[in-house]
Specification:
By secondary structure, the protein is α+β, with helices and mostly antiparallel strands. Helix content is 37%, strand content 20%. The protein is built from 3 helices and 7 strands. A 7-stranded antiparallel beta sheet has the order 1-7-6-5-4-3-2, with no helix packed on it. Strand 3 and strand 4 (55-58) form a beta hairpin.
């Protein structure tokens, strides 16, 4: 009777569904041992420049997208672990694939400098338009437009 009871208990434990996490680990063969410099492309997101593959660095993790899947690691020379889509930072998911492939640091700096100059010129134009609008409003107010002063 004891043997039968023990056997039944063993079978019932074996029949339970396994609750294990599956981890997929891969190695990235195309990455150099020493990575080229990184470029900040968004607040909190850096990209390793001059590579054929986009390697991001966010919050102490290197991230790589392979098709629809994301992998991460603390050391780019080590094993890369598959990450569930809900665990990938939203700022990475929003980046279109291939946007920062073969990003050259000098070209990025030049584009950034040109963008800043363009934004500065736009701010200058906006201030001039505001100043002109303010002056025309003040001019019109003195000629009976706008607020009226009454003697009651």
């Amino acid at each position: 009777m004891r043997i039968l009871l023990g056997t039944l208990m063993a079978w019932s434990l074996l029949a339970q569904p396994a609750r294990a996490q599956v981890q997929v680990q891969i190695t990235m063969g195309g990455l150099p041992v020493v990575l080229p410099p990184m470029v900040v492309v968004q607040p909190g997101v850096r990209v390793v420049s001059e590579l054929d593959e986009e390697v991001y660095f966010v919050d102490g993790w290197y991230w790589v997208r392979r098709g629809p899947h994301w992998y991460r690691t603390h050391d780019h020379r080590g094993l890369w672990v598959w990450v569930a889509p809900v665990r990938v930072p939203a700022m990475l998911v929003r980046i279109p694939p291939g946007r920062y492939r073969r990003l050259h640091r000098e070209q990025w700096k030049e584009a950034r400098r040109a963008r800043k100059e363009r934004e500065k010129a736009e701010r200058r134009n906006w201030k001039e338009r505001e100043k002109a609008a303010r002056a025309s409003w003040k001019e019109g107010r003195g000629k009976g437009h706008g607020r009226r002063d009454r003697d009651d």
